Amino acid sequence: MGTGGRCIECNQEAKELYRDYNHGVLKITICKSCQKPVDKYIEYDPVIILINAILCKAQAYRHILFNTKINMHGKLCIFCLLCEAYLRWWQLQDSNQNTDPNDFIRYAKEWDFYRMFAIASLEQAAFFTGIFTFLWVERPTTAKKKPDFILLLKALLLSSYGKLLLIPAVIWEHDYTSLCLRLIKVFVLTSNFQAIRVTLNISRKLSFLAIFSGLLVESTMVYFFQRMEWDVGSDCTIYKSQDF
Questions:
Q1: Is 194 in contact with 64 (CB distance < 8 Å)?
Q2: Is a pLDDT exceeding 90 seen at residue 219?
């Protein structure tokens, strides 16, 4: 007997996802609410599930978030931040051409990378803070029961996997790199939008407003850094830059 989870079609809780008979024969449970298979993705190849997730299908998100045990949120977050920090560091070095082999220069460049990582982390924290603040204020309308913000945080971290595409976009530099970076940003935001909608089972309007609130707080953080005259290389400038 499979463990409990959620129906990927109607989002209702299910006591079991499938029944495991002898010799590994599985029979997917039928949802009592919508009369559809609780989770058809149990029989799907992981590549198909990934493709459906890239297409931002709600069913694929429910399967990943509710019916699988993925414990790579922290590692994925760190790796995505490293990718974003590398992009910012790369653009900073590209704008400050210096071929001096002096050790001090190399140490300064290394410090620049750590600084970009810290700034990227703060901006992501600001983005998430904006989302959680909005949903906390709107919690009477977001769900009948108390929202699971821990699950939502994990969902947001997982749905930010699109940032991994930043490195290939930089390595294979071409005339359309700036366009690729914009498209990556849109894809990540779309994935975050779907993660919020699926996790909390709320309307598209509230999910959009949550993303907008996150961007607003993040932009405020970027403005603060710019006022401090830091070379932040933030999303607001990275994805709009034409100097590649």
A1: no
A2: yes
